[in-house]
Design brief:
about 140 residues, 6 strands, globular, Nuclear Transport Factor 2, Chain: A, 4 helices
């Protein structure tokens, strides 16, 4: 089963993120799937995830996500990833900056019956926003 779960995660990042396939979300995510950590509220089901996906792909239409490490244990798959893209749209809630950003994150996904049923995400949004010039931290000293 573990090789199937790893293959599902590879497909998820390749098709959903790198290729921007919306239909792949329906194919790989359970109807009652829940996604944590991508905003202030959990995303329930493919429809809510598609809203997030559309906004992010609008902001970074050329995003490329690379899997750095993939580990599975039972029904849980851990993915460490890195991404880069050019901020060309207002999908994140602020005007496009035209700047290129590199960012990274991790995902723990629970898989059942060949579908993603729950995901816990952590990504370096602060680092991404700093690269885009949207957030500036105070200087030390």
């Amino acid at each position: 089963m573990s090789s199937e779960n790893k293959a599902l995660m590879r497909r998820w990042f390749q098709e959903v993120w790198n290729q921007g396939s919306v239909s792949a979300i329906d194919e790989m995510m359970a109807a009652d799937g829940v996604v944590h950590g991508l905003g202030p509220a959990d995303l329930h089901g493919p429809a809510e995830f598609k809203t997030f996906h559309a906004a992010y792909r609008d902001a970074f239409p050329d995003v490329v996500v690379d899997i750095e490490e993939l580990i599975d244990e039972g029904h849980i798959v851990a993915v460490r990833w890195s991404a880069s893209g050019t901020h060309r749209g207002a999908g994140l809630g602020f005007p496009a900056t035209g700047k290129h950003a590199k960012f990274s994150g991790m995902l723990f996904a629970r898989v059942q019956h060949g579908k993603l049923v729950e995901g816990w995400n952590s990504l370096d949004q602060l680092g991404m926003l700093q690269q885009l010039g949207v957030v500036n931290l105070p200087a030390n000293g």
